[in-house]
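Retro notes, structure queue

What went well: the backlog is down to a handful. What didn't: a couple of records were mislabeled last round, so from now on we paste the full input next to the output in the thread. Example, using histidine kinase from Sphaerisporangium melleum:
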Amino acid sequence: MSSGKRSIRVKIFALLLLPLLSLSALWGFVLNLTVGDGIALMRANTIYQSIGVTSTDLGLQLQSERGLSAAALSVNDRDQAKLAAQRHATDVSLDRFRAAASTDSTQSALSDASKNAVSSLLDDLKGLPGIRADVDTRQSNRLDAIQAYNRILDGLFTVYARMISVPDLSIFEQAAAMTAMGNQREIIARENALISGALHSGSLSHPEFSAFAEWAANRRFQLTKSMAALDPELRRPYEEVIASSTYRRFTAMEQDLTGKIHTGGPLPDSLSRWQQITDNLSLTLDQVGAKASGALAERTKGVATGILLRIAAAGGLGLVAVVASIVISVRFGRRLVRELAELRNSANELADVRLPRVVQRLRKGEDVDVDSEAPPIGGGDSAEVHDVARAFGSVQRTAVEAAVQQAALRRGVSQVFLNLARRNQGLLHRQLKMLDTMQRRTNEPDALQDLFHIDHLTTRMRRHAESLIILSGAAPGRAWRKPVPVVDVVRAALSEVEDYTRVSLYPLPGAHITGAVVTDIIHLLAELIENATIFSPPQTTVQVRGDLVGNGFAVEIEDRGLGLSPEEYQAVNERLAHPPEFDLADSDRLGLFVVGRLAQRNDVSVVLRASPYGGTTAIVLIPKHLLADPDAAVPADTGGRHAQRPAATAYNAPATAHPGGAAGPSTDTSSFFTPARHPRHPGDPAPTPPALTVIPGITDTGPIDLPGDPGAHGTAGGASPGGASAPTGAPGGTNGSSPRTGPSGGPPSKRTGIPDGTHRGLPRRVRQANMAPQLRETTGPLAAPTPPSAPAEAAPGPAQRSPDEARAMFSAFQQGGRRGRMEAEHDLPPAPPGGPEGRRPPEATPNSDDAGNVPPERVSQDGQRAAGRPDEDDQRRELRDHSDGYVQQTTGEKGDE
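Corresponding output:
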């Protein structure tokens, strides 16, 4: 789930939360009412079992002790044993009451009012020993002692009133009325205590009479009020008591006593039976009260049963309703969530599985059935979710159809690009052939220089056309069947770069690359080298190094540019290691797309990193399985066009010999000066094998031409960007210059059988004349013509050159080159400054190790500018187009003819 987004489950829960809370609150309220009644009943039962029983017994004991105490104060000779026994019984009952009232269950069941009443009663009971002491010492009279006990008993009846905690109002009223009827028993006991004492003393004092009259009036008032409050069922037993003869005799004695005393007469004689009648009446009232209490208890049980039923109904049914609501809500919520989850899973499957699978199949060119790849999506039971699923199914089908259409469009665009690139490739190849023919036919240095520039531009255009082919997913038509030396591959890549004069190629070891990947490696290196020249200042150089490593052959291309940030290096390296699908909208750095495609196709590793000089270093690791045995690099006779020139030394860098390598200069003089090739013209005499004058001590391991004509295709010692040496003389022409002989650089001697150059002294090129003897073809269309009368002379054996002989050879070469340039100054118009396209090529000397390996136009040692040699770019191009294994596909040429 995305951050900040709420789940549908949460929303459903929030939607159902308010009704559930309302229902739960209502259920809690009803449950509280019903359970509260049940709790009240439980509390009432607890109070009755603990305080009710013990307080009733305590009240009876206090009433008995009050009567005995009043009697003791009425006579002098009192029964101390009976009073002491009663006091002990009262103390035992008091201890039980205190113990019951102090328990935790009783305290938790008592209300605040009940707790206050019980606490007040216990405080009053603390004064009981003082009352007893006053009775024993006669410090109080009879009425005072009775009133002291009355205050304790009043507190006890207050506790009775506070104990009534019944949720039913009718029961509460009946219980209050019965408590008042119980108070009738207490008032009769008070009157009995007072009259019993008066009977012992024979008289009543005026305060005692007032108290008796007050008690009698209060009793009659409470009786009338209580009887009116009782319902018929509970009132009937009390009516029977009131109608009994015992109660009538008691009321008659009570009225008779009140009237007699009020008139001041003596105590009536009827009081002789006072004690018996009051005892019987008290016993009857106790029995009636117990019976009424039982009936009220039965009624309370019914109320309790109803309360329990309400609790069960409110609690149980309410709980069932709440639980059912929660369960139903959860089930509906889960069902909705499950349907939405299935819809989400279908969407994820489309995005993560089906669409990528469709795209992958489309990339492979497979046909895709839209119906099978975009099946209908199940929508569940909800109508809305079903509609959403159906709409999403339409989206899914549209997405698959769009992917199929886009793939078809991309294939069409790629095919268009491929066809255009193939046509351009064929046209450019034909243009290169035409430029080759034009270079062979012209003798004008300026025209040759322009042709070389066009040749170079055409080569770069062909590379861009091949880039389109690679981006279209196809492979260029060029290929080699035989392994090619790494140095030739790198130089071929240099020849396809615009600012090749800024590139310094360091000596490379003699490794060979399998012919199947030569085209891709050349293209890959050319893209990286061109990037290095573009993204570095024009006054800096780009250095190219290479060496054999444990995992293959590594080529390092280092520039002096501004470099990239670490994040950009990481992004570019990721793009090179895992090239993405080519996007037409992303037109930046197309070269990186091409490099990534080529590297992935041939399992070549390309990594960019920061250079210590602040620029960028590109490391290309060619794996071992792409390297070939050097012995297999010697081409066989295929009958096709072959490479005409071996590579020589590096651009702008001193070359040193490597063991077995092709980068360093050979000890063979043919590696410096090799005869150029020229086509035979109709009417030209058949060429004869060259006959050279052997310089003493120098082994003739190859043809040697010392320049003597300043116009011989350019400056002596000039070379093409491909690294091939620049010849000065060739058969098949007129007025050709002859190589010098002798160590002192005397006049040149003509080659035997080699036709002269042109009328301006430019030599004619001969096919394969500048190639290594092992690479020359003896048959086929490219084989050099050999006259039948050519003498077969065996080459002399190898001999060591002395320092003087070598110095004489190079001195002759230098003098001839200087003279040729001086003569060219008189015949040629001045060339534009700065070299080709405004660039100034590097300086070189005829006797340096770079001799024969400079760009088409260069500045000589003495500052004289000379035109480029006719075969400089020809050598570079022949390395690419005329190698042993070259196979040119001409797809698209016929459509342009």
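Agreed that this is the format going forward. Reviewer comment attached to the example: Residues 636-784+804-879 form one domain.
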